[in-house]
Amino acid sequence: MKFIALKTEDGKKKGRIAFCCKMLGVSRQGFYRYLVNRNRPWKYQRLAEIMREICSEDQCNDTYGRMRMYQALQMKKPDGVEIPGEKTVYRIMKKIGLTHHPKRKPNGITKADREAMKSDDLLKRDFRSDEPLKNALRILQRLKQKMESSTLPSYSTASI
Fold first, then answer.
1. Is the dihedral of CA 105, 109, 114, 118 positive or negative?
2. CB 101 within 8 Å of CB 59
3. Are 45 and 68 within 8 A, CB to CB?
4. Burial of 108 from C-beta contacts in 10 A (0-12 / 13-18 / 19+)
5. CA distance 104 to 95
6. pLDDT tens-digit profile of 61-115?
7. What Å distances lie between residue 155 and 73, 98, 152, 158, CA to CA?
8. pTM of this prediction?
C-alpha cells in the first residue's frame, strides 16, 4: 500500500492507481481505505504506553507474559483506558515488542552418563527363536512347574 501511495503521490495521479493495484494484487477500494486510515492514531496507543510503564517499573517486569500483564493492568486500573481481553493484551504486547520467549533447552538438565554400568539381564530373556512360540511354551512350562512346586496352604471345609 505504501508503495502505491508513493508512486501515485497519495492517489493524486489517477492513471497509475488501477495499474499499480492490479500488479500488486490489491483492490482499489482497499487502497483508498488505506489512504483514509493511514494517519489515524492506533486505538490502543494509550494502553501500549501504560504497558511500557509497567515493564519499566521494575527490572524483572520485562518477563511478564500476557496473563501477568493483564493482571497488572487490572490492578493499576488506568483512568480513561478500557482494558481489553487477555488475547488482545497479548496482541498489543506482540505489536510493541514486549512478548517474552524464553530460550528452550531441549535436552533438559539431565545428562546421560555413557560410562554408567548396564544392569544385568536377570530374567535372561531370549526372544530369538527358530520355531514359532517355542520360547513362549518354555516359559509357560516353567510357570506350571513353579505353581506345582509351591506349597500353598490347603483349605479344607469344616463340617458343621
1. negative
2. no
3. no
4. exposed
5. 22
6. 777 888 888 998 988 888 888 888 899 999 999 998 888 776 776 666 666 676 7
7. 74, 75, 9, 9
8. 0.48
Separation between Cα atoms, residue 61 and residue 53, nearest integer Å: 10
Burial of 106 (0-12, 13-18, 19+ CB in 10 A): exposed
Place of cell 512478548: 99
Rounded to 5, what percent of the chain is helix, strand, coil?
A: 50, 0, 50
Reported as a single tens digit per residue, the pLDDT across 35-45 is 888 788 888 88
Task: Report the residue count for the chain.
Answer: 160
DSSP per residue, 58-89: SGGGGG--HHHHHHHHHHH--TT-----HHHH
